[in-house]
Design brief:
Strands 1-4-3-2 form a four-stranded antiparallel sheet. α2 (11-20) packs across α4 (120-148). The protein has 180 residues and is of the alpha+beta class. It is built from five helices and four strands, in the order ααββββααα.
Length: 180
C-alpha cells in the first residue's frame, strides 16, 4: 500500500523523484507561522442526538506557495481549510459547524542547495509538500481548539491523503509559475 501511494503520479514527480531522495524533512526550518483567518459558526439547528450523519464533512483545501525573490532557499506557504462550500447553516443542515482557518508559514531550507545538486522544481515540490504537512498540523490543532469552545463536540481535521497533497502542491506550483 505505501509503495503504491509513494509512486510517481505525475510528470513533475517523475522528474524530481530521484533528486528528492537527498532532501530530508529536517532540512526545513520553520521561522514563523500565523493564522490570517479563523472563523467558526455553530449551527443552532444541529441535533447531536439526531440519527442523521453530517451531510458535509467534506473539506476545501486551498494552497498557495511562493519563494523569496532574494533568497532561493526561503519559501512561503499559505493554506486554507474550510468546510465544504455547499454547507450553509440552515434548519435542515446536519453539521455542527461551518468553519474556515487559514495559516501562513515562512520556511527556510537549511541544507546547501549546491551540494545536493538539486533541480529547482525538486526543491520547490518537496518544500511545498513538507511545509504543507507541517502547517496542516497547526490548522488541525487550531480548529480543534476553536470548536471545543462551541456548543457541540469539537471538530478534528482528519488526515489528508498524500496523493491529494501532492496534487495540491503541484497545482499551487503551476499557479505560482503563472503569476511570476
Amino acid at each position: 500500500y505505501f509503495m503504491v501511494c509513494y509512486r510517481a503520479e505525475s510528470k513533475l514527480m517523475k522528474e524530481t523523484q530521484r533528486e528528492m531522495r537527498s532532501i530530508r524533512a529536517e532540512d526545513f526550518f520553520l521561522h514563523e507561522y500565523f493564522f490570517s483567518n479563523q472563523s467558526v459558526e455553530a449551527n443552532p439547528y444541529f441535533d447531536p442526538d439526531g440519527n442523521e450523519e453530517c451531510d458535509g464533512h467534506k473539506l476545501q483545501l486551498d494552497l498557495k506557495l511562493s519563494k523569496d525573490n532574494e533568497k532561493e532557499n526561503v519559501f512561503f506557504t499559505e493554506i486554507t481549510v474550510s468546510s465544504d462550500e455547499d454547507i450553509v447553516i440552515k434548519e435542515n443542515s446536519h453539521c455542527p459547524y461551518e468553519f474556515k482557518v487559514s495559516v501562513f508559514g515562512n520556511f527556510e531550507f537549511k541544507a546547501e542547495v549546491e551540494e545536493l545538486n538539486l533541480h529547482g522544481k525538486a526543491l520547490e515540490f518537496h518544500a511545498g509538500l513538507t511545509c504543507t504537512q507541517i502547517l496542516l498540523g497547526a490548522i488541525r490543532e487550531r480548529l480543534s481548539e476553536l470548536t471545543s469552545r462551541g456548543p457541540w463536540d469539537k471538530v478534528l481535521l482528519q488526515s489528508i491523503g498524500i496523493s491529494t497533497l501532492r496534487s495540491k502542491v503541484e497545482s499551487a506550483l503551476q499557479e505560482a509559475d503563472k503569476e511570476s
